[in-house]
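1st attempt posting a full record on here, be nice pls
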Amino acid sequence: MTNAINAAADFAFINGDNPDRTIENRFNTISSFIKNTAVCSVTSDVITIPVAQGNTDTEVLAGGGTFIPADSIITSIGILFIDLLDGGANAVFKVGFGPSTGDETIVAQTTLLDNAGSDITANQFASTSNGLIPGTGGAAMKIATGAIVFAESSAQSLFLRTNTTTNDLGATCKIKVVAEFIPYTTVS
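the predicted structure (as tokens):
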């Protein structure tokens, strides 16, 4: 395959002038290539799922900062179960994602586990792009119909809502949230 990046070409001067004019043009070409072909993702800090029943809203942070970069389009959101999620005697476990606390407009609340005495094993990764059903009686996560997934002009917060019902979980569980996105998207 031929390398089409100008920076790989020889410095050829014609009548004392470089046709590429400056090295800056070569760097711009390289950066444009990288910007438009790089696969981008972000992984959150560790989040602990509590044992008790009810809703828990958690802002998803990466390195203590806002999760989704400005001018990005979210293409997938997932959960990596670092620990076993112990379903206890009969817990039902659900998740949802949105741009503010209590909001589930990006990923509508999805049941990941709904079966007496079953668990979600450690090291599973359930995402909107892989269709994994991590627990018995659960469902795959999906980006919600009509979800606004474009972080235009400024970085966007992402909130995780977990919901445990019917019974408490058997123990706390550590997870990480992973999002994939298309960067450097502008509408102008």
